[in-house]
Specification:
Number of strands: 10
Radius of gyration: 17 Å
Number of helices: 8
CATH superfamily: Glycoside hydrolase/deacetylase
Structural class: alpha/beta
Distance between the termini: 20 Å
CATH architecture: Alpha-Beta Barrel
Helix content: 40-55%
Shape: globular
Order of helices and strands: EHEHEHEHHEHEHEEEHE
Strand order of the largest sheet: 1-2-3-4-5-6-9
CATH topology: TIM Barrel
Number of domains: 1
Length: 245
């Protein structure tokens, strides 16, 4: 096994107030496209900030539900899913293009992300939107999920994502935030968990799945300290931090 590499991503452009402090410590920014948070001026400011720090830019499409921050499940026909995801990728891509940057990846947000992990029809619709926009985009999905499988089968690049600050269910899905112990609070524990995820992957029954990218939650009150500590611990463990490509 060669030197291990990992991408560090964060959901930004959601007006959580930590963007400027966290951007220097990550390699990929997932930028809200206006459906759950953000607007044209927030997108532009976030793109500029990412560009300044040499951070990859990705679209973070959601259900159209600002009221619930895109965290509530919605069920609509696959064609509509494809068109709303495509629209959001396109909106951000145009803003990025004006700043001289191309998008690297797409990572669905909130309920859309979680539903696509287990709903194959929904996953396929998201993949069609990504592929229609560009076959060079990398789809970021929950490592080992149906969304990743859909991307692999459609022949696009896929990055499996792990969550160092979250507990997992035995089937490899994320434990619901409403459950005790679902969110790991201590930055030291988050860093330790990150190393374990990279080295050992996630066990789904008999299947072991490795991660390509780790998500740092930008809305966590210790987001910046978490990111700094995490980088230190990964580097100490001989893990290289590098953007997806």
């Amino acid at each position: 096994m060669g030197k291990m590499k990992i991408d560090l991503n964060c959901d930004l452009g959601e007006s959580a107030g930590n963007d400027e402090a966290i951007m220097p410590h990550i390699t990929s920014a997932n930028i809200a496209c206006g459906f759950h948070a953000g607007d044209a001026s927030v997108m532009q400011a976030t793109v500029k900030l990412a560009k300044r720090h040499g951070v990859n830019i990705g679209a973070h499409p959601s259900w159209k539900d600002r009221e619930n921050f895109g965290r509530v499940e919605i069920n609509i026909p696959a064609e509509e899913v494809e068109s709303i995801v495509f629209e959001q990728i396109n909106t951000l891509a145009q803003i990025a293009r004006a700043e001289g940057i191309a998008l690297t990846h797409v990572k669905p947000h909130g309920a859309l992300y979680n539903q696509a992990a287990t709903d194959r029809g929904l996953a396929d619709a998201i993949v069609r939107a990504v592929k229609r926009f560009s076959v060079d985009l990398i789809l970021v999905g929950l490592a080992g999920s149906g969304l990743c499988d859909a991307g692999f089968e459609a022949g696009i690049k896929v990055a499996g994502e792990g969550f160092p600050d979250r507990a997992y269910n035995p089937d490899g899905t994320l434990m619901s935030r409403s459950k005790q112990g679902a969110v790991i609070e201590s930055p030291e524990d988050v860093a330790k968990n990150a190393v374990k995820l990279i080295r050992e992957g996630i066990l789904f029954g008999e299947r072991r799945v490795f991660v390509d990218t780790l998500c740092l939650h930008g809305d966590n009150k210790h987001a910046v300290e978490n990111a700094i500590l995490l980088r230190e611990v990964l580097t100490k463990n001989g893990i290289e931090i590098a953007g997806l490509k």
